[in-house]
Amino acid sequence: METLTVEPRTSVKVDEKKIQEFAVMIRGQVITKNDKSYDEERKVYNGMIDRYPEMIIKCRDVADVINSVNFARENKMLTAVRGGGHNAGGLGVCDKGVVIDLSLMRGTRVDLKNNTIRAEGGCLLGDIDHATQQFNKAVPTGILSTTGIAGLGLGGGLGHLSRAYGLTIDNMLEADVVLANGKLVTASEKENADLFWAIRGGGGNFGIVTSFLFKMSDAGTVYGGPMLWHLSDGEEMMRFYRDYILKAPNSVYCYFALLTVPPVPIFPQELHLKKMCGVVWCNVGDLDKSKKAVDEFRKFKTPALDYAGPIPFSGLQSLFDGLYPKGLQWYWKADFVKELTETSIRLNINYGHKLPSTHSTMHLYPINGACHQVKKNETAFRYRDANWAQVIVGVDPEPANREKISQWAKEYWEAMHPHSAGGAYINFMMEEGQDRIKASYGENYEKLSKIKAKYDPENFFRVNQNVTPAK
Question: What are phi and psi of 32, to 5 degrees?
Answer without folding.
Answer: -120, 180
